[in-house]
Amino acid sequence: MTLFHLIAGWIGYLLICLLGLILIAFLCFCLYIKYIHLKYDHIPGPPRDSFIFGHSPTLLREMRNDRFVHDKFLEWFVECYTHIESGVGKYSVVLLLHRFFGNGLVTAQNHDEWYKQRRIMDPAFSSLYLRGQMGVFNERAEKLMDKLADMADTNTAANMHHLFNCVTLDVITKVAFGVELDLLNKSDSPFPNAIEMCLKGMVHYLRDFTFQLYPKNKKFINEVKKSCQLLRSTGRQWINERKMAVQNGEDVPKDILTQILKTADKANDDEELMLDNFVTFFIAGQETTANQIAFAVMELGRLPEILTKVKQEVDDVIGMKQEISFDDLGKMTYLSQVLKETLRLYPTAPGTSRFIPNDIVINGIPIPAGVSCVFSSYVCGRLDKFFEDPLKFDPERFHPDAAKPYYCYYPFALGPRSCLGQTFAQMEAKVVMAKLLQRFDFSLLPGQSFDVLDTGSLRPKSGVVCNIRHRGQTPAA
Ligand code: HEM
């Protein structure tokens, strides 16, 4: 009995000590949070939801309610916003415990490693090299036109977003890796779904890092992992095939894949880094452009005056010509304006972040070192401080004679880490749009193409669905 009392006493004592330790740890944590608040409280911003969780509850609520978080940022916009492009701190991306973008070009954190990769990749994005790719842009866009012609003939509604996704994926695999996928005619390809799953996984991971801990998400996570593995194993296969070709002295194109082989350190033949870059280009080079073209079609579909004007320009520049040249692209200035205005309202990479390595003062506000700043292209594009009547889709804002929107329009980011594929993307978007406008009339399917949100902005739904007609063809009853 005495022994029992002794053990019970010790257990009670240990429990009290444990509770005391937990309490001390919690108090230290609260002090740390208080210290962080004091460090950043001078930066204007919306009131916090909670002492510990800061603004996270509001952001999580917005995302769970399927609202766009950048709309909340827009609401929260603080008067002293300014743009900086400083440091090159980045996050390497691991997707739900599986290496995804890794240390590839978009996410490389170390400046020297990034710089080396960027210099190696530059030649595959030079104007001269891209000029030589006009044939591929034309040929792939032509396949889309064939598909649309079939749809017009059979009076089938076209899910434009899906079709643009197929064509941009076809273009990037051909231009970057020399591989023909022909997704417009092969509906059983696993790639579009794999990319969609990886992107969804990335969104979940960024929204809530505890996502992977809940058993109910296991099935989804496994699917994302499988998709990620598919992309990386495809990369491994294509890289090895190209390596063999190089070793056999074959004449290989100077494309992105050839440049990717050069990013690996010769001494240790870093295959993982090559795969990081493979996945980076596979994804960065496709989805953003497809979304941009779909958003442009959504706006043109509801704005007949702008549509007529851009069609007129396309007719004037390319007429009935099938092969669009690089010089033609330069002449379609109003189409460029339409595409730029599309990215102002719908930046398909809506924001970016930069790590601030040293103390810095922005608009008179001291920003302490060691933080990451988020720059929202979406917010800047929708502020009437920078763009009058911001929700109005007006390509005249980008007229060559209009004042340039310096530091408030950056859909491709600014500075050394800005988009390497900007010219590539805009050439591709222009070729697809020009051919579409040259050949077809389209109208948005009522109720299926976009929602008008309570913020007054538009959101595409069901993939921007259109009725397609050959130009001059009378609409079906
Ligand atoms: C409309 C289409 C596109 C948009 C809006 C877009 C946007 C962006 C943005 C905002 C960044 C900066 C990311 C950051 O700061 O974290 C970026 C980086 C990058 N983009 Fe794009 N992009 C597009 C198309 C493309 C295409 C077609 C390619 C390749 C073929 C590409 C390749 C890259 C690469 C490699 C980087 C990393 C650059 C570096 O850090 O050195 N992008 N893009």
What does this molecule look like?
It is a single chain. Helix 4 (111-121) packs antiparallel against helix 10 (256-263), helix 9 crosses helix 11 and helix 13 (304-318) packs across helix 17. The chain has helices spanning 2-40, 56-64, 69-76, 111-121, 127-131, 134-153, 160-177, 191-207, 218-247, 256-263, 271-284, 287-300, 304-318, 326-331, 333-345, 377-381, 422-439, and strands at 93-95, 98-102, 158-159, 351-356, 360-362, 365-367, 371-376, 440-444, 450-452, 458-460, 465-470. Helices cover 52% and strands 9% of the residues. The strands form five sheets. It has a three-stranded antiparallel β-sheet with strand order 3-11-8. A two-stranded antiparallel sheet has the order 1-2. By secondary structure, the protein is mainly α. It binds protoporphyrin IX containing FE. InterPro entries: CYP46A1 (IPR039983), Cyt_P450 (IPR001128), Cyt_P450_E_grp-I (IPR002401), Cyt_P450_sf (IPR036396).
Task: Jot down its keywords.
single chain; 477 residues; mainly alpha; Cytochrome p450; three-stranded antiparallel β-sheet; two-stranded antiparallel sheet; 17 helices; 11 strands; 52% helix; binds protoporphyrin IX containing FE
